Amino acid sequence: MVSRYHEVYDSWKRDPEAFWAEAANAIDWHSPAERVFDPAGGVYGRWFPGATCNTCHNAVDRHVENGRAEQAALIYDSPITGAKKTYTYAQMKTELEALAAVLRDCGVEKGDRVIIYMPMVPEAVFAMLACARIGAIHSVVFGGFAARELATRIDDSTPKLIVSASCGIEPGRVVAYKPLLDGAIQMARHKVETCVVLQREQLECELVEGRDTDYASAVDEAKRAGRKVPCVPVAATDPLYVLYTSGTTGQPKGVVRDNGGHMVMLAWSMWNEFGVKPGEVFWAASDVGWVVGHSYIVYAPLLHGCTTILFEGKPVGTPDAGTFWRVISEHGVVALFTAPTAFRAIKGQDSKGEFVGRYDLSKFRTLFLAGERADPETIKWAENQLKVPVIDHWWQTETGAPISQNPIGLGQLPVKYGSPAVPMPGYDMHVLDDAGHEVPRGTLGNVVVSLPLPPGALPTLWNADQRFRDAYLEEFPGYYKTADAGYVDEDGYLFIMARTDDIINVAGHRLSTGGMEEVLAEHPDVAECAVIGIADAMKGQVPCGFVVLNAGVSRDPAELEKEVVALVRDRIGPVAAFKTVVPVKRLPKTRSGKILRGTMQKIADHEDWKMPATIDDPAILEEITEALKARGFG
Ligand code: COA
Ligand code: AMP
Description:
Low-confidence stretches: none
CATH topology of the largest domain: Rossmann fold
Number of helices: 18
Shape: globular
Helix content: 25-40%
CATH architecture of the largest domain: 3-Layer(aba) Sandwich
Number of strands: 31
Bound molecules: coenzyme A, adenosine monophosphate
CATH superfamily of the largest domain: ANL, N-terminal domain
Structural class: alpha/beta
Strand content: 15-25%
Largest sheet: 7 strands, mixed
Distance between the termini: 50 Å
């Protein structure tokens, strides 16, 4: 099949408003937009101003009304607990009506924020959609974050209520959520007065009298009473959710997603980009706490009338490296979306792909990888094992959908290993040098996107228009700065090589080294510190902390490491995967005092490095090399 990509991309470029107006026909609107795009609205313009709509109606109710009532909407498959459960669209609607009634009874109204701090259980999805139903703004916090991270998000989003659960389950341990929830509520300045808590049988918790409502009994009561809460029309430009993502400091950025543009973009992506039809089974093996989970576990597949899989497990160890193939064959999955790290983990345990042959994968058509750079070796291994196209695509929490991809529905283009292919409609990409000049093809530079961003991309940061401008729009006027470095080749394929800020990517999770440095600096013996990401065969990168101790302090390195690791786990959470501390006498700096993190990373990764001309004292880099060797990185 000849790809329609160029024709479709050109049609978007010729007339973006006509393009998105056409795409908007996939959505039910309560009232139409006054115009497709208002360049004077918001920070850089707003999509579909004046329109009213409801995301829950589009994701659930309209499918019940239009013949999908008995189709599976959500399949919960939890190899970690042994549980499996299917919800049809009609059953899902019943769950949402009841939970929406509970939220209402707790005083949640349109525009109120609700934090969702939950493991991968169906109730997490219900909580998101029930918020959407009543026009409340959800903010999901990933379960691997510690109490302090949760407290930061409570203070920034000032929620009326938190929906949580008694525990999450990780291989080999049950994670008690309740102490984290209670700790965060206590730490936060904003006082949360109501929680709805799901009791899980693996570890029940005590409910706080007067504050906590038991999820199951409240929902059951609402069902018994036949409570029906209709979908509340909201403005297309009203926020659907706020999702916090790592910034360059410990203060995360609250990425705002609107209702209208988000639906239009996601609905468009399901066929054109992912090649999936309504009624088919789509699986994003991520977590609802990440943007991939928001967009491709919950909203996009449901908006498109697909069946989505909610998988509570890991690619390996639950129980083995064949879990993914079992899920694909058992539920008839046509497309899987996950992070390359998951495939590196599987390959690490089953390099010959012996598990693959044990399952019927005949319905499976495409594997999509994103969240971090897909290394060619991993792509080739997956292609060889699965005999389907393996598609790398690049996006960010901020965009909510792919920026560049090899578009399966439009017709696959030739694959270039290491490249997430070509820009999607909505994205006019440029590569600029630091002074803002376009660089020649093939030259590495700052990857930026011409404003306005397309529907679905963030219109701003929560309560922080100025931070949004400063972080994304200021440096290259007229463009959105992705903070990724890359280049475009002679065929227009993009290659994303690294971040230009201090964000690192650990097992597909986006983490701020600046945030970790803030925690290391809290240790009483640490005078100065630097955290860098170093290469890791499975996780892509892992953090490594260099610490300079206070004058006169001498510590056993192993003891010190234990304390610092525990501190990061306590402050940020296990997801930081912070395990390594390297004590050093001094940190390498430029003469103006900037720590040479980039050079330290090259040394740790055994890459070629040049002595920076501005270095204060070249001998320090020798000391760093020796310290790394002593720690086993030499
Ligand atoms: N709640 C509590 N703790 C969590 C958690 C959660 N939801 N998710 C992860 N953690 C913990 C892990 O248990 C681990 O703890 P440990 O240090 O005690 O072992 C720590 O956080 C680090 O987790 P992770 O980096 O995920 O490492 P892992 O060794 O547990 O698993 C992979 C590695 C590759 C199997 C896993 O990261 C994975 O499946 N990743 C691919 C999919 C993905 O999630 N992508 C993200 C967006 S697309
Ligand atoms: P997140 O906001 O967590 O989705 O992380 C976004 C960042 O992950 C991007 O800015 C990139 O640095 C990286 N990333 C995501 N997908 C890819 C990809 N396909 N190739 C290279 N880097 C990627």
